[in-house]
Amino acid sequence: MNKKVISAKNAPEALGPYSQAVKCGNMLFLSGQTPIIPADGTLIKDDIKAATAQCFENIKSVLEAAGASLENVVKMTVFLKDFDDFAAMNEVYKSYFSGSFPARSCIQAAKLPLDCMVEIEAIAMVD
Predict the structure, then answer these.
(1) pLDDT of the residue at 127
(2) What residues are labeled active site?
(3) Which long-range contacts (C-beta less than 8 Å, at least 24 apart) are formed by 97-103?
């Protein structure tokens, strides 16, 4: 098996015993990204749009460390603390893609790491 751990310096460090991403063959599996600003470790707590954007910036950093981009993403899962934030999250979400969107699931989670508002994970195809 051709398995490689991916680590991005411009994304938050893992909060536990897991990798930011793992590449296996041409598949790239990203762990959930929370709205932590990597430069100072600040968690965006009260603004779902800013929190969603930070999750995407962290995802982009991990993808770039693997030689990929959002264009390579085929599936995303969004975990929301409050499903009432769905429309605002969706507004930011769609701004990160041009053309076709990846497949997606979105669920409300009882509790997320650090009690954050949103966490987003992704699966991508890479060369």
Answers:
(1) 81
(2) 106
(3) 97/70, 102/73, 102/74, 102/75, 102/76, 103/74, 103/75, 103/76
Residue 104: strand pairing partners = 76
| Strand residues in the chain grouped as ranges (E) | 3-6, 21-24, 27-33, 36-37, 42-43, 73-80, 103-108, 118-125
Q: What SS3 state is found at 106?
A: strand
DSSP three-state, residue 89: helix
pLDDT along the chain (127 residues), means of 10: 91 91 97 96 97 98 97 98 98 94 97 96 95
Q: Could you tell me the two tokens for 59?
A: 């995802």
Residue 97: CB atoms within 10 A of its CB come to: 14
